[in-house]
Amino acid sequence: MSSPFTPEEQQRIVEAIRQAEKATSGEIRVHVEPHCAGNDPVARAIDVFAQLGMHQTKQQNGVLFYLAYADRKFAVIGDKGINAVVPVGFWEETKDLLRNHFAVGDFVGGLRQGVVQAGRQLTQYFPYDGSTDTNELPDDISFQ
């Protein structure tokens, strides 16, 4: 699988995911591929969400950051649990944050900032419970 990121950049994104997940039971994944199958990034993100088994989290609080870098398309989607509690406009604000970074070619910075922002919301609504929480999904970036 090819990656638009150096190993160091990948590690910075993974570290942002780990930091964001430390205070929440929520799960964040990043999926990167060159081209968006079907041309609709939200539809593709929904497919990837399912492929990655993100619906299997106990509280349905998974968040997926999807990036098709060569096509310059992306999406951010959350599972039912988080969608039910985040403020109206939250996902649009997160996409605006990503868009501002992506517009200047800063994919790593955009993903890291988006992950941090999503982590704050997850922490607010799904705080970490050390007695029962486990890392339900891998933190690494998935590539296609």
From TrEMBL:
Pfam families reported in the protein's UniProt record: TPM_phosphatase (PF04536)
Lineage: superkingdom: Bacteria
Every TPM domain range: 5-119
Name of this protein: TPM domain-containing protein
Gene source species: Spirosoma montaniterrae
